[in-house]
Records
---
Amino acid sequence: MTVKTSVLVVGGGLAGTSAALFLAWRGVDVTLVEKHPGSSPHPRAVGFNARVGELLRAVGLDEKLPPSRVGKGFGIRRVRVSSLVGERFEETFWSPPAQLSNIEYSPCKGVGVAQDRMEPLLRDEARRLGADIRMSTRMLEFSQDDDGVTAIVQGDGEPYEIRADYLVAADGHRSPIREALGITRTGRGYMHTSRSVLFRAPLEEYLKDGIGQFVVDGVGFLTTYGDGRWVLMLEDREYEETELREKIFQAIGRDDLDVEIITTGRWTISAGVADRFSSGRIFLAGDAAHTLPPSRGGFGANVGIEDAHNLAWKLAAVLKGESRPSLLDTYDAERRPVASLCHQQIFARNDGHNRDRTPEDAPLIDNNAMHYGQLYRSDAVLGAGPELPPAQLPEQWNGQPGTRAPHAWIEPGKSTLDLFQRGWVLVADHPQWEEAAQRAGVTYERIEQLDVFGLSEKGASLVRPDGYIAWRSVDLPDDPTDALAKAFRKSSAGTR
Ligand SMILES: Cc1cc2nc3c(=O)[nH]c(=O)nc-3n(C[C@H](O)[C@H](O)[C@H](O)COP(=O)(O)OP(=O)(O)OC[C@H]3O[C@@H](n4cnc5c(N)ncnc54)[C@H](O)[C@@H]3O)c2cc1C
C-alpha cells in the first residue's frame, strides 16, 4: 500500500501540528505521522505570544483559546522567594525591561494555554480542515529523489509507504531526519539537565498579584500552568515519590494541602540552530531546526509555530503552480536568521539561561521588536537590504518591506491584519492602484491608514499571504500597473 499526499509532516508536536493546520487551511493535501498516541501529559510551554495569537486568529481558532494570564508589557513575572507562601525577595524583570508603550501592536493577546491542551486544539482543527493525522505512527526511514519523498511508516500493523511531494521534518530537537541529512548545528549545545514534577494543588490565592514564577531558595523553580497545575523544576537526580512530595511542600511552604502528583519529567536543555533549514524537498521546522532553551522570550514553541506558518503558504503556492519552486528557498533565508537572532537574544538576556556560560555580548532587542518586528531578507521581499537591522519596533519600521504588516483598527473589531492571509493583497487608496491590482490578480484593499504602512496617500503596499510586506511604492509611480506586476512576479516567484 502506498499513501499519496502532497506534504508529509513527520512529528505531531506544536510545529508539526501547526504545519498540518496551516497547510490544510490553505487547501493542501497533508498527512502527518506522530509516533505517540497523543500529547505528552507533561506540558512544556506554558503559553504563547500574541504573534502566535495572530496566526491562530487568521485560521479562526483564537476564540477557542483562553487569553493569556500574562500582564500586558510585563511578560511572565518572576520573583525569588523563601517559599510560595513565605517571604518574597527581589523580582527579576525581563531584560531589557519591557518598554510600556501606548501603541497597540496587535489585535491579539498572548494565549494562556498549556502545550498539552494547545496541541489537541490544533490537531482537531487540522483534522476538521481535512488533514490526515496518523497518531501512533512512526516514520522508520525516508529517501528523496527529484520528484518527491518516500517514507516508510508503521502504525499498529505492517510498515507501509507514503509518497509525498515535500516533507516537513518537525521531529523535535534530536531530529533523526536532520541527522540523517547530515545537517549540522551551531550554538551553545548542551547546557544542563533538570528534573520536574508536575502536580495539581489549590494554590490560586498565591497568584493574585500577577506573579507566576518563583525561584524558591534551596529548592528549585516553581511555576504554574494557570489551570490548577504546577511544575517544580529540580536538580537532575533520582527522587522517590515521598521525597518529591517533601520538595513540593517545601516549595509551597505548607504541607496541609491536597497535592496530586501527575507525572515527572527529565529535560535536556540545549541550544543550537541548524546550519540549513532545508535539503532538497525536505524542510526542518520547530525544534528540529532550532533548539532554543526556555526563556521568558518564549522563543521555543512560538518560533516553531511561526516557521510552520512561513512554510505553509510557500508550499501551497508551489503545489498550486502559482509560484516556482525557488520560492521555497526563501524559507531558509527568512527563518534561519530569525532563529539565530532568538538564540543570540536568549543568551544576551538575564533570564537565567546564561548561567551555564558567559552572556552573549550583543545589544538587547526590545521584546516587542522580537515578536512583531523581525525583518525578512530574501528573494520574496523587495527592498530589504543588508544595511537594515534584524529587528525593530513596528513604528520604527513603518511599513518596511520584509516586516510584518502593521496592525491598525479599520473598524471596531477589524484589524488591518484581518485583510491578509488568504492570498496576496495590495493595500492602497487610489483608483490606479485598484486597476493595477486587478490586472496583477491580487486582491485590492482600500484602507485609510496608509500612514502606518509608511505610504503617502498615493502609495501602495503589497502584502504576502503570511501578512508580511513584500514590496511598497511610497508614491504613485508613472506606471503603477507595470510596477506592481513586476514586483508581484518577482516576490512571489510567479509562474504567470
Ligand atoms: C521544560 C521546557 C519548558 C518550555 N517552555 C516553553 C515556553 O513556555 N514557551 C515556548 O515557546 N517554548 C517552551 N519550550 C520549548 C517548546 O516546548 C518546544 O520548542 C516545542 O515543544 C517544540 O515543538 P516541536 O513540535 O518542534 O517538537 P516536539 O514537541 O519535540 O515534537 C516532535 C515530535 O516528533 C515526534 N517524532 C520524532 N520522531 C518521529 C518519527 N520518526 N516518527 C513519528 N514521529 C516522530 C515526537 O514523538 C514528537 O512528538 C519549553 C521546553 C522545555 C523543555
---
Amino acid sequence: MIPRNQLDLRKFVAPEFICGRGALELAGRYARNFGMKQVLLVTDRGVRAAGWAGAVADSLTEAGVSFTVFDAISPNPRSRQVMVGAEVYVAEECNGIITVGGGSPMDCAKGIGIAGSSRRDILGFEGIDRVSVPTPPLICIPTTAGSSADVSQFAIITDETRKRKVAIVSKMIVPDISLLDPEPLTTMPRELTVDTGMDTLSHAVEAYVSNASSPMTDVHALEAIRLLTSALPAAIAEPENLDLRFSTLLASLHAGLAFSNASLGAVHAMAHSLGGAYDLSHGRCNALLLEHVMAANYGAASDRYDRIGAIIGGGETTPAERVAAFRRTLGITETLAAAGVREDAIPALAAAAYADPCMVTNPHNLTCEEIERIYDDAL
Ligand SMILES: [Fe+2]
C-alpha cells in the first residue's frame, strides 16, 4: 500500500445541494433559475407509479417550465437506453435535465447529458476525465438513499453487448444542484432500502480505506458509517418515519461526498463485474462482497478497518465479521451462488474486476488470483 500523507495534494468537488422536507418541490424554481426552457425529465416507471415524477412535473408546470418525460430505463441502465434518451433530448430541443429516481435514472440522465451534448456514443467516455464537452444543467432528486449519483462525479452504464459495466468519472457530470428530500424514500420497498443502504455502507468503507482518501473525505466517510449503521435497521422497522429516512439520506450524502472524491475499491470493481454479467442489484452485490474484501484487504489498512469496526461495534470480532453480522441483521443471508453466480464464471468475473477503474484505489494491490479467491469466498 502507498503510505498516506495528509500533505498530499487533494481536491474536493461537490455540487450545491438542499436537504430537508419539501426539497423536491423546489425543482421548478431551480429549473427556471438555470434558464431551463424545455426539460428532459428522466425517471423510471416505478418512481412514476409512486407519484414522485408527477410531483416534480407539477413543480415544473407551476414554474412555467415545459418538459418531456423519459422513463424507458431499467435497473443497471443500458447504453442503448442512454442513446435513446439522448435522441429524445435532441429531438425535443431540451436545454436542461432533471432526474428523479434511484441510481439507475440518475446515471442514465448523466449519460444522456454527455451523449446529447457531444452527439457521440456514451461508451466512448469510459474512464476518468474523458468528457471534454460541457454538459447541460442537471438537477438530481434522489428517491433512494444509496447510489449518491446525486453528488458524485460517477455514472455507471451497462455495455449490454459485452455484458459489462462501464464507469464514467468526470467533474462534468457532478449535478448542478441536488434536492434531497426524505419524503420519496418512504415508498421504497424493504429490499430496496436494504440494498441501497448496503451500497451506502460500501461507499463509506471503500472511501475511508482508499489510497486517494484525504482528511476531508475521512470526515464524511466515518460520519456515513456512524449514521447508516445506527439508522438503517430502525428505518427498515419504521419505513414511514421521516426522521429515520432522513438519517439514511444524510448517510448516503456523506458517503457520496467521500467516495466521489476518494474513489472506491475492490468491492465496487467486483460488484460492477457481477452486475454487468448477471444483471444483479448493485447494492446486493456489494452486500455479498464487502466483508470478504475487508478480510482480504485488512493487512494493508488495519488501523482504518479497526476504526470502522469500532464504530459498528460487536465484541471480540474482526471488522469484517462485524459488517457480516450487520448484513445478517438486515436479512441478507444468502451467498453469491444463491444469486445465480457459478463457480466456472469466476475467472472471467475476476478479469473484468481487475480492469475496473475502481480497483486502482483499493488499499491492497490485488492480483487476479486474489480476486478469484474473494469471489470464491463469497460464493
Ligand atoms: Fe455503489
